[in-house]
Amino acid sequence: xxxxxxxxxxxxxxxxxxxxxxxxxxxxxxxxxxxxxxxxxxxxxxxxxxxxxxxxxxxxxxxxxxxxxxxxxxxxxxxxxxxxxxxxxxxxxxxxxxxxxxxxxxxxxxxxxxxxxxxxxxxxxxxxxxxxxxxxxxxxxxxxxxxxxxxxxxxxxxxxxxxxxxxxxxxxxxxxxxxxxxxxxxxxxxxxxxxxxxxxxxxxxxxxxxxxxxxxxxxxxxxxxxxxxxxxxxxxxxxxxxxxxxxxxxxxxxxxxxxxxxxxxxxxxxxxxxxxxxxxxxxxxxxxxxxxxxxxxxxxxxxxxxxxxxxxxxxxxxxxxxxxxxxxxxxxxxxxxxxxxxxxxxxxxxxxxxxxxxxxxxxxxxxxxxxxxxxxxxxxxxxxxxxxxxxxxxxxxxxxxxxxxxxxxxxxxxxxxx
Length: 418
Description:
Elements: E1 10-12, E2 15-17, E3 33-35, E4 50-56, E5 62-67, E6 73-77, E7 90-92, E8 107-112, E9 122-127, E10 136-139, E11 142-147, E12 150-155, E13 168-172, E14 184-188, E15 194-199, E16 218-223, E17 230-234, E18 239-244, E19 251-255, E20 267-273, E21 277-278, E22 284-285, E23 289-290, E24 311-315, E25 319-324, E26 338-342, E27 355-359, E28 361-362, E29 365-366, E30 371-374, E31 378-380, E32 385-386, E33 390-395, E34 401-405, E35 410-416
Parallel strand pairs: 3-7, 3-32, 17-21
Antiparallel strand pairs: 1-2, 4-35, 5-6, 6-8, 8-9, 10-11, 11-12, 12-13, 14-15, 15-16, 16-17, 18-19, 19-20, 20-24, 22-23, 25-26, 26-27, 27-30, 28-29, 31-32, 33-34, 34-35
């Protein structure tokens, strides 16, 4: 069994003796946050030495951000589609009526910062009529979109302001009736000859049967034409953010773990991804902890194969976005480290998440505990009121950072003071 470390853990003889609570120590809360939005002049709070400004607004559920090599900024606008259930994660306050909960704009908007001053001068509707788009990627003369039901490839040339043609679905992805984790993030490798697709589980803990989870809770690897699909790693309940640790060939992912075992279970995590590795879902969590709801089901993978995640990110934080900072405008301590967006809890009696955190790295490995970086999203903890929820994260060529707030329809820009 691979060793891992997280706050409060002690590893001995290859096994982890930890301080995780036992299942059902507390009840399973349904504490949906109330989104109140941002009043004039209000904004998230960054550490001393940084400034926060509004990069763009007037979007419709901006989920993910992708910055092209030429500086064009693409924003996928998509949402959870309700199928007779309440949207997991937030109840929208009456004053915020522009969210259209349960509706998805299915659009990509492009911004162009012509004079490179951090304020986009041009805005284009780059693509529409997509199917819950999320991850975006440019490789050569193609623009890729991770729709919930497949990887799409379009012809593209730098500077295009409109995605031309109907495109081609080069990989079909599972997105049936049970599609709880619908986002499909995509990244490429340094050679740009492979694409990695994060496909979350269709349910919480395979309660609709394992047949519904085929090619799910996985990171898939395909060639850039969609051929040669294989499972790169599995047992990852909802691997959304993915990035390569600087100076290495190691893939890392932020994983949104399971619900309904209590306030402190199960921690979301950041982990390096081992080719062929098994990370436990749905049978085991955080290493060799067996999920009591699957006691009567046998895992096809032996318990000894479960890899322990590298860093605990807290239970129910909905840790989604991941970015290794490789620019130079932020202070030295941030360079090479990991930024993670936490979209925020619904299954915890006291809210958790709703912020951006930072984890320092040294030589491609975590070198310190997670620390808050961008806060202020929670308005009133006792009343479960929040201003917004961070999800997408990207860095511009000038080293400033963009963070999307998908329930307040804003993209924030964070820059280091000069």
